[in-house]
Structure formats: structure tokens, C-alpha cells
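User: Please fill in residues for this 156-position structure.
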């Protein structure tokens, strides 16, 4: 019979029992370092730049379900031609105005000498409810990349 002050010997050498907490800590520290190395950003293409658009209507309005929002980035340098579309975002049921959206574009498509603008409209069953009368200039020639688009009722 064992006395109260003695330990139970399970056949494990004393040095391993005492070393186990240190081995566990070393393994844990090693695992944490490996996981920390996984938190790096993978090489690849840089994220595309964007124009940040805030859409709001000139008058208080509540959009119906089924409303469609269209935002486009256009090159309107050629005034005698239809603007070239560089980027487009279409979204059903965009929520109630004041809507914030990012319009991503390819920076390689931008010519610093050209004029670019954002067009926007809200449609219901294919008919314009609210429109931006003219493209709002952005990106080049010192123009902003964050704009507020004040939509108006469409012309009659």
C-alpha cells in the first residue's frame, strides 16, 4: 500500500511527465507562428479602383419592390457621339435612397486627357422613375472619385 505523500507510478518516466507541459507550449507556439504566417495577402492583381456614388432623390420617395438601379461610368469626351460605357452596375431592389455604391472600373481603360462621368437612374418596370440629367464628371482632370448623385424626375 502507498502512503499518502507518495505519487502513483504509471510507468511513465518522471522526466517526460515534467517535460510534457513545456512540449505542449512549444508545439502551441509553433502552431501559432505557422498560422500567423498564413495571414499574409496572396500575390495577385491589385483591387480595381472605384468611383464611390451616393444616390439620392431630389424629393422624398419610397421605392417599390422591383425597382432597378443602374449606374454607369462613361467616356463623354466625344460630344457628337454616344458615350462609351467603361463600367456598369445594375441592381434590383437597391433599397431606399440614400444609397451608397461602388462602381469598379479598369484603370488601364482611363485616358487622362478624356472626360469621364457617372450616369444613374432608377427604373420601375423598365420606365425611368428618377434620372441624373447629365453625367457627373469624375476621375480625370482633378475631378473627384466620390460623388453625390442627385436624381431628378425624368423629363415629361
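Assistant: Residues filled in for all 156 positions:
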Amino acid at each position: 500500500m502507498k502512503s499518502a505523500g507518495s505519487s502513483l507510478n504509471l510507468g511513465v518516466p518522471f522526466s517526460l511527465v515534467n517535460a510534457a507541459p513545456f512540449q505542449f507550449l512549444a508545439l502551441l507556439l509553433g502552431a501559432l507562428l505557422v498560422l500567423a504566417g498564413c495571414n499574409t495577402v496572396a500575390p495577385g492583381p491589385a483591387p480595381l479602383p472605384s468611383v464611390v456614388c451616393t444616390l439620392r432623390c431630389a424629393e422624398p420617395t419610397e421605392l417599390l419592390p422591383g425597382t432597378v438601379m443602374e449606374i454607369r461610368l462613361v467616356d463623354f469626351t466625344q460630344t457628337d457621339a454616344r458615350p462609351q460605357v467603361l463600367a456598369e452596375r445594375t441592381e434590383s431592389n437597391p433599397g431606399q435612397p440614400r444609397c451608397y455604391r461602388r462602381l469598379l472600373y479598369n484603370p488601364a481603360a482611363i485616358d487622362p486627357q478624356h472626360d469621364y462621368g457617372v450616369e444613374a437612374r432608377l427604373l420601375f418596370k423598365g420606365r425611368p422613375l428618377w434620372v441624373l440629367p447629365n453625367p457627373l464628371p469624375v476621375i480625370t482632370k482633378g475631378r473627384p472619385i466620390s460623388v453625390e448623385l442627385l436624381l431628378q424626375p425624368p423629363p415629361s
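For context: The beta strands are 50-57, 67-75, 84-92, 99-104, 116-124, 127-131, 136-138, 146-151.
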